[in-house]
Amino acid sequence: MEDDGSLIHPECRGRFKLIEEPRCFKCGRHISEAESALCPECKDKKHGYVYGFPLYEYNETASNAMIDYKKNGWKSHGDFFAEEMAVRLAGYIKRQKPEVLVPVPITKGRYNERGFNQSEYLADKLGEKLGIPVDSGILIRTGKAVQQKSLSGKERKENRFYGIECACVQVPYRSICLVDDVYTTGGTLNACTEALLAAGAVEVGFMTIFAGHM
Fold first, then answer.
1. In contact, 139 and 117? CB cutoff 8 Å
2. Is the dihedral of CA 124, 181, 16, 24 positive or negative?
């Protein structure tokens, strides 16, 4: 990646791989024609969210971009991803008709370390482009949630403590779309979903920049 004044270097933009149809009806990752409406992983899991729309497949270029965006503070990457998501995922999202976009929260320690919440920044940009309001205060991160990247696949499945709670007893929305950077096992997004459903939401889905391979 190079900071040449453009949102993302043209050579690197070409290395992002768009997720193509057909998509899993639940997590939005690409599935083969031979598969049913759900990917093998979503068949085995019971996620609370009803839809998911990631933009790109997670690869080496994606990993480098996330480091620059989250850890190095290159917010121009967030601008680029929001623009691409707004253009390429708008049709999917408009069909779902969410009332609000809700970014996945991060811990206070992580916020102090980075100076911003990458998901909140992305949600704000998406909200402007899609004409959907954003509520960044409805979900909070409490306690000491285990960092998912430090766990194996099995450990991620067994990790039930994400430290995510709803900030209010009753949410004022029925239909909510979560916004996050990367979809891996779906554990964090499901924890957010469960918190919102417990507080009165009826339908929760999500949008992410990337989705990891199954």
1. no
2. negative
